[in-house]
């Protein structure tokens, strides 16, 4: 079964499909089996230094390799996983897989960023689970980053500040994802113990078929970078699809770019090969002691 699924690329669940009760039940059964059978895998998308041209960080992105439906992307099952609560278990699996992969890339000084669902962020066991994933994998915490969407941190600001502070005591890095879409009260940002701000793709590539010759909204990108720098945050721009996007972002002072222009998400084995090739061609500095 895995053979057919591995190559399949068609996406499969449709939004309407998930609306009927029987379909949802089928999905829930499938999803529980998928956790038992370990059908979830993690792919990685490079975040590239806009000045250095070197991959400094990777974003871990989950994929479901469904036995009959093929590769299923997160937009089609994360909402369900959140509503059903199963995202807790899925999140643990992803975190453990990503930490185990990241151990191989420490020698190249590459950080791995894992997305957290808002539901996970509100889980009182989160800090213990992150600590466990670090311990069981042996990953140096400085190579783990957690991405939390702007909308998730806005709800209960007191709680957000507390959880962020606890996570930071583990020695990991924190990022605010999809920044610019959530109507943040900028005054809050100052109190968030984060390292990285990820500018939402909407301002970089725009929507589907957005402009390739310019940033979709350069004025907003510029304003967000200015503010991030004032708070001493690293800036990652998502949705970089052209050399023009990359050039303009570099000029505006963004630190890292992530998007199809640099690379689509690839398997862990693909990253092994890619980092080894960068290393042997001399673009990567020899690894510092880790
Ligand atoms: P995100 O965290 O903002 O991740 C970026 C998404 O944009 C990824 O989609 C990535 O493949 C896509 N992308 C990156 N560069 C480009 C580009 O240049 N053009 C276009 N058109 N798309 C680009 P993906 O993997 O489908 O993930 C979608 C969302 O699902 C993620 O948005 C994140 O919110 C969620 N997600 C993905 N993996 C996980 C996970 O492990 N856990 C949780 N809780 N959520 C996840
Ligand atoms: Mg993300
Ligand atoms: Mg994002
Ligand atoms: Mg997103």
From TrEMBL:
<protein>
    <submittedName>
        <fullName>Cyclic di-GMP phosphodiesterase Gmr</fullName>
    </submittedName>
</protein>
<feature type="domain" description="EAL">
    <location>
        <begin position="24"/>
        <end position="279"/>
    </location>
</feature>
